[in-house]
Amino acid sequence: MAIAITSPIPDVCVIGAGIFGLSVAWAARQRGLTVQVIEAKDIGAGASGGIVGALSPHIPEQWNPKKQFQFEALTTAEDHWTQIDARSGLSSGYGRAGRLMPLPSQAAANRALDRATDAQTHWGTAAAWSVLPPDAAPNLVPNAPFGLIHETLSARLHPLNACRALAAALRAQGVQILTHTPTQATPKARFETPTGPIQAGQIVLAAGVPGFDLLAPLLGQVTGKGVKGQAALLGASLSPDTPVIFDDGLYIVPHANGTTAIGSTSENTYVDAVTTDTKLDALIAQARILCPVLKAAPVLQRWAAARPKARRRDPMLGPVPDHPSLFLATGAFKIGFGIAHKVGAALADCLTDQDPHLPESFIVTHHMDRADAPDY
Ligand SMILES: Cc1cc2nc3c(=O)[nH]c(=O)nc-3n(C[C@H](O)[C@H](O)[C@H](O)COP(=O)(O)OP(=O)(O)OC[C@H]3O[C@@H](n4cnc5c(N)ncnc54)[C@H](O)[C@@H]3O)c2cc1C
């Protein structure tokens, strides 16, 4: 049932209660703004309601503002999630467990050694990158003839639990979250719910994949699309300090709650974003070969959703050109959870008339200026 939107008019209305919308709402509230969140379905109903939750850095070479943004997010994530857990009384499942990546060849091992120097340059003492010998993780990755990369910047959390913790922390701070309240873009008012037009000082659109359609009439173009991912949760209780494992597109994420996630497929074309199929079976089989301790673990959950990918791949954040008081927080694609709190802070800067210091490739026009040549 839709609930009437109560006055007084909030400073900010955030459309979408995924990890980006909730993180923007949190950061805006911390700046003293009054905030309302409007969600079509439920907390984490889109890509954020998942089970994988690897927070991993880009490779520390060819450094650029995007990598610096993500680095700063990853090195401050622990403080952020500790605060959210404390304020909500719930667990986000955050833990900085690091990551292991088996090396496929001697050439890859040589490159990995070079990258240890790059990591030192760009990560400083905040995290380390090293190459371990083939027998370094016999229980987890017994077959790694060229050794394994071990880096200590990666972390993991439980995506749906993190969203629920954030929502509880927001409610504890007086933020109203209206669920089951779909928003439509209309010619009359920019955004309207079943109970009337959204009234707020400023609006942040953080509606994931459907947000690209909501935005299209305002921009005159579609600036992104969904990329489907499938994942599974296994009943394999690895120690909570077990590193995340990554190999050839496959993530194995041991969670704090005694489950282990396997992810993810990456599908540009699909009929139904939320069903799973044999592509997931293949991924689970790949995980069981790489990490034989998972061999007999039962599959507890199969899950799929579409990730919001902006036209030029990077996040799409900040003011919407020619639409005063309207801001975007989308394009999280595959890295949303690792950068969300910093995205929230950047949007809160926008909402309070401060410079968000966003990388050039994150701003809205970056995703618009090649309308004739979609960069999907
Ligand atoms: C299989 C899979 C594995 C992944 N693994 C990882 C990982 O390991 N690490 C990582 O960082 N990221 C991962 N991701 C990506 C991550 O999930 C996304 O980057 C992130 O969830 C996107 O968050 P969002 O808030 O932008 O969008 P969403 O989570 O999709 O949130 C949008 C919200 O807006 C709501 N909404 C939509 N339309 C309307 C409307 N009209 N009115 C009101 N509300 C509306 C939706 O219901 C939804 O709740 C994975 C994604 C998938 C699918």
Put the structure in a nutshell.
With 376 residues, this protein is of the alpha/beta class.
| Count of extended strands | 19
Provide the CATH architecture of the largest domain: 3-Layer(bba) Sandwich
How far apart are the first and last residues' alpha carbons, in Å?
37 Å
Give the C-alpha Rg: 21 Å
Helices and strands: which structural class? alpha/beta
Helix fraction, binned, reads: 25-40%
User: Mean pLDDT, as a whole number?
Assistant: 95
The backbone outline, from C-alpha atoms, is globular
**For this structure, what is the CATH homologous superfamily of the largest domain?**
FAD/NAD(P)-binding domain
- State the name of the first-level CATH class of the largest domain: Alpha Beta
How many helical elements?
Answer: 7
How do the helices and strands follow one another from N- to C-terminus? EHEEHEHEEEHEEEEEHEEEEHEEEH
Number of domains: 2
CATH topology of the largest domain, what is it called? Answer: FAD/NAD(P)-binding domain
Q: Low-confidence spans: pLDDT under 50, at least 5 residues?
A: 1-5
> How is the largest sheet built, in terms of strand order?
5-6-4-14-15-16-13-17
